[in-house]
Specification:
The chain has helices at residues 8-58, 63-87, 93-111. It has 112 residues and is mostly helical.
Length: 112
């Protein structure tokens, strides 16, 4: 079907299909970038959490400060990359990720 014989409706459907394919490709690139960033942050934070455990033990902390020093970094190693993964999961998941982050921040601020 060439352009001269295609009806207006067929040209609109073809253009619409082409636009959807471009949007899917852009989404895939966005998802790849965010998954890559999530894994990079997770790797760095896991290494930092292991170092933090050693340093917390060497500092001989006790009580709430010791609990936060030992557990805060590995919790960040899970929660921060989860934000990247959830925001790239699909439409509407970014809002859920933001809401989860705000709630966890609020809980953290109220309990410390």
């Amino acid at each position: 079907m060439n352009r001269n014989t295609a009806t207006r409706g067929e040209r609109i459907r073809t253009a619409s299909r082409h636009r959807r394919e471009q949007e899917k490709e852009e989404l895939r690139q966005f998802q790849q970038a965010f998954f890559r960033a999530g894994h990079a942050h997770a790797g760095v934070l896991v290494i930092l959490s292991l170092l933090g455990l050693i340093l917390a033990d060497a500092a001989q902390m006790s009580g709430l400060l010791a609990f936060l020093a030992r557990n805060g970094i590995w919790a960040a190693a899970i929660l921060m990359p989860a934000g990247f993964f959830l925001s790239a999961a699909g439409k509407g998941m970014g809002v859920a990720s933001l809401a989860l982050g705000v709630v966890s921040l609020g809980i953290g601020l109220l309990t410390t």
